[in-house]
Q: What sequence folds into this?
């Protein structure tokens, strides 16, 4: 039997603790990719300038290029690129991106090959069946920018439930809300850093996620919520897993959000069962080994086969 050859891959990107904070999406991707490649036998190194295949993960402007190696830059994209980002990505031999949306943008703007290589999800986000006989908790997670429309979420929740004690809204953010002083007793704001265990506990003890983003490069948070068995109210025009979203927001108006949070509350008992069982589908279809490895392994083996091609690699120095 022919001995399997272990292929070394240098991975460059972000380092740090697993937190729900700035650059969390890039960190989740980097961590998941490393573990998935190691599991199927790739020899992962970091900062190895002699490695012949370099996979750099992060935003377009910050990629690490290794001279004379076959360089792959992996970026999640949610809007058109400026010229600096285009020039940065064009240094690579090829570029990967995890969504159709990003693929369409990059194929128009870059002069090098682009491949859609899907992100995945950690098996850490285990399903938990929700209780419906206690306080019903809506959870909204947003960044400090206008694209998440958090004020519309607060207004919709207030119009539907007022200050009822049996329903509450938890808002996880990276900055303080301007309207914090006017928030009523059944709305709680969490603005400190959450580490992975605390983040998982927050997901598993909430009943429904409200995610009102105008655009995402992938959107780990709704997928992770679904994986724990939680129904999700979310925009979906950017989404690769829209078939798993229980309540699809067509727009982020107060009226649209209000309609769906009321529907989710009315359906809470059915959703507790249905979304718990649907979460297993999310794990089957979206864990890193399923979505990422098959596609990535083909490209990485090609990179190794062409890593000594000086015509290809010297052009990128």
A:
């Amino acid at each position: 039997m022919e001995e399997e050859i272990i292929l070394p891959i240098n991975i460059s990107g972000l380092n740090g603790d697993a937190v729900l904070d700035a650059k969390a999406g890039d960190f989740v991707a980097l961590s998941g990719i490393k573990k998935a490649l190691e599991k199927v036998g790739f020899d992962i190194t970091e900062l190895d300038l002699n490695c012949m295949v370099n996979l750099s993960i992060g935003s377009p402007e910050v990629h690490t290029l290794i001279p004379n190696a076959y360089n792959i830059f992996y970026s999640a994209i949610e809007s058109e690129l400026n010229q600096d980002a285009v020039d940065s990505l064009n240094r690579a031999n090829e570029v990967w991106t995890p969504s159709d949306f990003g693929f369409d943008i990059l194929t128009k703007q870059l002069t090098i090959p682009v491949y859609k290589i899907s992100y995945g999800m950690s098996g850490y986000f285990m399903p938990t069946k929700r209780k419906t006989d206690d306080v019903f908790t809506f959870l909204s997670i947003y960044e400090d920018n206008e694209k998440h429309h958090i004020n519309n979420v607060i207004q919709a929740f207030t119009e539907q439930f007022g200050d009822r004690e049996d329903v509450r809204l938890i808002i996880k953010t990276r900055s303080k809300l301007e309207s914090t002083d006017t928030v009523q007793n059944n709305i709680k704001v969490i603005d400190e850093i959450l580490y992975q265990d605390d983040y998982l506990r927050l997901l598993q003890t909430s009943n429904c996620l409200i995610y009102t983003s105008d655009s995402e490069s992938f959107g780990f948070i709704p997928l992770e919520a679904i994986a724990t068995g939680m129904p999700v109210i979310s925009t979906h025009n950017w989404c690769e897993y829209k078939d798993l979203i229980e309540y699809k927001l067509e727009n982020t108006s107060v009226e649209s959000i209000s309609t769906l949070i009321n529907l989710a509350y009315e359906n809470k008992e059915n959703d507790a069962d249905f979304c718990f069982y649907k979460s297993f589908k999310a794990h089957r279809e979206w864990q890193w080994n399923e979505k990422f490895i098959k596609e990535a392994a083909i490209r990485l083996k090609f990179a190794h086969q062409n890593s000594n091609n000086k015509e290809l690699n010297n052009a990128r120095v």
